[in-house]
Structure prediction request, 1053 residues.
Amino acid sequence: MIVASHISKYFGSFAALDDFSCSISDGCIYGLVGSNGAGKSTFLRLISGVYSSEKGEIHIDGEPVFDNMGMKQRIVFVPDELYFLPRCNMQRMAKLYASMYENFSYEKFYRLATTFDLDIKKKINTFSKGMKRQAATVLALSCNADYIMFDETFDGLDPVMRNLLKRILYADICERNSTIIISSHSLRELEDTCDQLAMLHSGRIIFESDVMNLKTSLFKIQVAFSKDYDKDTFKAIDMLHYQKSGSVATMIVRGNRDEVAALIKAMNPLLFEIIPLSLEEVFIYEMDALGYECNEVLL
Amino acid sequence: MKKRLFSFGVYKEIFRRLMGIGIALAALMLLLGMIHVFWLFPGVVYEPGYVSDTVYLLEPNGFMSLLLLPLYVFGIVAVSRAFSFLRKRPGTDFYLSMPVSRTVYYVSASLAIATWMLAVAVAGCLGVCVSSLITGALFNYALLLPMLLTILSTCALIVSVSLISASITGTALMYLLGVIIILFLPRMIFSLVGAALNNVGALLGNSSELFVLFDYSYNVPATLPYGLLFGRFNDDYYINIAASVYTLVHAAILWFIGMLLYKKRKAEAADTPAATAFHQAFFRCACGLPVLVVIPYMLFETFYNTVYYGDAIILLAVSLVMFIGYELLSSRSIKNLIKVLPTYGICIGIAVIMSLTLTALKNFDAGREFTADDISWFSIKSDDGYSTSSYLTLSLEAIRFTDDELKTYIAEGIKTDNPVDGNSIYDITATVQLKNGRSFTTAVYFELDEALGFMKLLRENKDYSELTSYRPELSDISAALIDERLTNEQKQAVIESFIEECGTLPENEIASINIHGMDFGLFGEGDSSAIWAIPSEKSDAAVGIIVDNSEGAIQGEPNKVLLGKLIEPYVQILSIYGTHGYDYCIQQYYLDDTFRETSMLYMQFIREWHENEYETYEYSYFISFTQMVDILMKAPEFHYFRLVLDLSVFAETYGYAPRYELYLDSYRLAEKTGNPNPEYAPVKLNPEYAEILSRAEFSTDPTDYIKINISMLVNGLGDYDMPEAYLKLSKADLARLVELLKEDSEVMYTEYID
Prediction:
């Protein structure tokens, strides 16, 4: 389990992370979402032991990560900007990983490389951007680490490869109960991948939730009545957003869908419809409820 | 998990990454180790079939600087490649997230670099050995170990400095700048402080005695540039075990500091000029300091007794420009520059502290006077300008002089100021022990009269007299005679004769016995004053290991190591200086009736060569005296003509040793006559020269010869040189020859040397 408590990281006077806390349980896919500069990559680098924090602590299973060789055996990090040895091929990179990661599996490496249709003897610098990311992912997964961090990992992958990668990640979790942390500035990328999502803004988590809960806890209602009505008519409902246009009102509601439906139906509406929200819409309304301008937080 | 210090995976990876630079530098070192010989002896290259009867010596000090230069490239490039990830964020992310602790990476990478370092060093030594084997040039293989130590220690220090720089910088340019600053700046400041201390006052003594850091020669990588900077470039610094050990320890300390800095380094420093604001300030001030600290040095440097304010202002301005230049180059922000400009005060502060400290020391020194009565004893240190000490130096240092008159000279000499021009005064370095328990080493200055008086008293001293009157057991002497015209057997015969005659010299005849054909007297080499009276070496330390021409004799000689300093185990030339001012040196053929038998033998061999061997002589442009006279008689005109007539053996007759040099060339003549085309101004020589010379005979009697040397370019025929010839002329012919030379001097260019 990854526990970050009140961590702060500064670059000069800029606070990349400010009193940041979170906990990530084992065996899940944890998504970090936020605009550029929100602190996603910084957090990943802190968990990976690349950075050390000025304040607060990060522990994985109770142990600190920074410069801790034993713990780092259990972590692998695929950064947003990839690094490969100069003029090398995947085979040489695999050797380097194998010399450092005790659990590196050549069998898995060859299998995944075949799955992604990557030529392991070809110089990596001749690969396309997407192929390089696939190569880095193959190498990282072959390490059989307990904690795998991907920074903007779907960047540059075509839809087919994106789906393939997702399937491989699910399989890895199922096989080894590994924990995967993925960051992205695009919520859509993470919507159908993560179990848990955290939204970062200005170095803090401003919202964190289980994806399934999120998807079911908020919904949109369109309703119309023959009589006059206003927002106060729905006092009993936990409403995040209310908008009336003519006689039709649109509401974003949090709560039990059946209970809310029963409550409104009891008011004899002329029109009543429950519309499911996309994850992005859920986030927008949740942010709005917290007092954030959505444009600040999401792209 | 068990803590580790080394990762074979990292080692292997870095080793592989350095393969390119390692192999290239090893090949270069191999080549440089060999090139020295081929460069010096082109005959080996151009005439593979040629077998010389002359054996050349390969002295490491002659080529060490050449072997050390590539190490700067290796150290800087190797560390840069091994730690290149520190300068790029992707690389930093990659390596610092790997399950390798910073210590393990640092140690493993350092070991990979050290492996290539060893390969490079061995290649350099191997090159020397190979060239020795190919050319037959003599090389003392016992010197390989100190050579290897010098190369390794030098490289280790450069690598350690580069590691520190890599740990605190984030761009390639700053990395390079960091290496230069860390490698040279402390040494420069120490050297300037040391030099200033030497001028501050006598009682403080010699800075190099005070603190080894003030002696730049101990830092091998800094020796080359500082040696050049301070005009004391000398290859001897490069084979100095003490310096190598110091450099190695220095490298180890810096390596450890580098590890601490690397462990502390923040990953986010990649792509930024310096890892922290502190490091940035450090580099900024380090750029401003080198020029600025010259000002305090100037304050105490004798030459600038009064500081020239113009110079100081220029130095200040240059320092400020370097300070600003660094900041602009690294941060590229004027706003930032304005913000950090006040930190230039740190540079000013350091310069002020340096000046105040030196002033305080000077005042302290001036307040402490003493007389001869306060001196318990003193000893003399013969500073021969070399870091290696001769046996004489060490023996002389061991003598504690307590004579009252000598002590008076020392007490007065210490008070004498170092003159501005430095020419009219003589100095020695003395260690003085005061009765109050204090001791110091300092320069003692004498006027000429004082120096002569001091030397006279010194000779009367029993200990000194015993030391200087010591003569080697001549049976121990074996010597080299490098003269291509003689066979090995002939050389051996001349040397044996020379040694035999040395043994017959009166006790007081030998003033000094030298190696390298040079004398390091108390008052410096090349000084012809009568106060040259120090034997340079004694037989059991140096003369006894003078080389002979047999290969085995050299190769078999062990190194002589005294007090941790290496004495070269062999020399090329044996020469002996006489108390009456003449020097007897086989190599230079200055033989007179003191070595009559040797001279006659030598002349006989040379004559044989002239008569029989010159045609096979390797240098084809040399012609025999007979041929030269033949050309002189037939050639109508020359492009140039040079005749040297050395009458030194007639010194008693003339009262001095005249040496006439007649040098004529068509260009000078054209200039004199206003002829615009030198080709139409040929030199026409008085045919009487040829007539006189044609009557000359080769002499085997050294009391009766003149030394003559002629070279000329005959129009349409070529360029000719003639080796020095020793001729016998009738008194009438000699007088006429001198008369002709004097006459020619009136109409043509003549140089007369007394």
Summary: The interface with chain B takes residues 11, 45, 48-52, 67-70, 72-73, 75-77, 79, 81-83, 85-86, 96, 98-102 of chain A (CB under 8 Å).
